[in-house]
Amino acid sequence: MEIKKVGVLGCGLMGSGIAQVAAGAGFETVVREVSDELIQKGFVGIEKSLSKFAEKGSITAEQQKAIRDRLSGTTSFEDLADCDIVIEAIIENLDEKRKTYAELDRICKPEAIFASNTSSISITAMMTATSAERQQRFIGLHFFNPVPLMKLVEVVRTILTDDAVYEQGIEFGKRLGKVPVRAGDRSGFIVNRLLVPYMLDAIRALEEGVGSIVDIDTSMKLGLGYPMGPFTLGDFVGLDTTYYIAEIMFDEFREKRFAPPPLLKRMVLAGLYGRKSGRGFYDYKDPKNPTPMNLV
Ligand code: CAA
User: Fold this and answer.
1) Residue located nearest, by CA, to atom 1 of ligand 1
2) Which of 119, 120, 122, 187 is labelled catalytic?
3) Which neighbouring-strand residues pair with 6?
């Protein structure tokens, strides 16, 4: 089966980015959200990103229009019925995901591939909400924020994934212009397995007084050439998301290095989620000049 039509579930930060990249790679792409407002919000973000590429000359005005024309939004699952692959990027909640997959399984054609963009929930736990046939056509496709810029996609297989379907997942990643890596269905896959303990350790170092927010960030940027230090990255990813991923990984591995430190928990309880809420490790009152918060 050749992949021609792509379905995306969720038009938030990740879903809209995935839809943009799929339409940009030439696929007819339909995005499903729960309301027209959320579709519009996602499409505004896509338009902004495409305009940045157009301003830089990476795409022409005609290509920008063609990408837009290949994209459509819907609030109905039925509009995904003829998709060859459906990539889910909804809320990181296993029950919600299982409910969604069970419904989609009834609607989508039997040969369609189901993929999840989850960063830490078990692919196996989601796939069992679908029929035995679909379970062999179930993979993880984990993208990175901002999706239009980040080159990596983790392609995840379970113990039941069909070999040919998995290879199709790898090829599809390449057709999206990404570099696919192969990962097994272990919570966090490759990137978060290494990233999460690093970010949590940075918080512990801050709590212990090893260095300030700015000095720890500067050290990792200038000492190792990372594009963002751990606190800037945490605020960018979202501290609620980071906390949630850490909890799931701690639950899976029962290892101290995945346990969220008390400061992270307090920040999430206090609504300091990072950039999206205006405050995290930094205060974004002036978004171009974030100032470090006084947290310890
Ligand atoms: N679409 C198009 N262009 C964009 C864009 C978007 N969504 N976002 C930024 N850009 C462009 C900017 O316009 C800018 O263009 P110019 O160079 O022409 O000015 C360029 O990209 C660089 O952006 P900035 O100057 O704003 O900032 P930067 O140089 O720091 O780059 C960045 C931004 C690419 C995000 C870079 O900081 C980076 O790579 N950071 C690390 C991101 C990262 O680690 N992401 C993974 C997070 S983990 C995850 O997603 C998964 C998980 O499971 C938690």
Assistant:
1) 49
2) 119
3) 29, 85
pLDDT(1) > 90: no
- Does the pLDDT at position 62 exceed 90? yes
Cα–Cα distance, 63 to 44 (Å, whole number) = 17
Q: What superfamily does domain 5-184 belong to in CATH?
A: NAD(P)-binding Rossmann-like Domain (3.40.50.720)
Q: What's the confidence (pLDDT) of residue 7?
A: 98
Please determine, for residue 226, whether its predicted confidence score (pLDDT) is greater than 90.
yes
Quote the mean pLDDT of the chain: 97
DSSP per-residue string spanning 258-279: GSPPHHHHHHHHTT--BGGGTB
Sequence-distant (6+) residues with CB within 8 A of 231 are 202, 206, 213, 216, 217, 280, 281, 282, 292
Distance CA 96, CA 219 (A): 40
Domain boundaries of the chain, sorted by first residue: 5-184, 192-289
Smallest CA-to-CA distance from 79 within 24, 8, 172 is with: 8
Instruction: Tell me the fold of 192-289.
Output: N-(1-d-carboxylethyl)-l-norvaline Dehydrogenase; domain 2 (1.10.1040)
pTM above 0.90, yes or no: yes
Q: What is the residue with the minimal CA distance to atom 34 of ligand 1?
A: 149
Q: How many CB atoms lie within 10 A of CB 15?
A: 24
- For 2-33, the DSSP string reads ---EEEEE--SHHHHHHHHHHHHTT-EEEEE-
Q: Could you tell which of 52, 58, 242 is best to mutate to test the pocket of ligand 1, judged by most ligand atoms within 8 Å of the CB? A: 52
Lookup result for tokens 């963002």 = 228
| pLDDT (0 to 100) of residue 119 | 95
* Joined tokens for residue 293: 């918060």
Instruction: Please report where in the chains the tokens 């970010």 appear, as a residue.
Output: 199
- In 171-284, DSSP assigns E strands to 179-184, 282-283
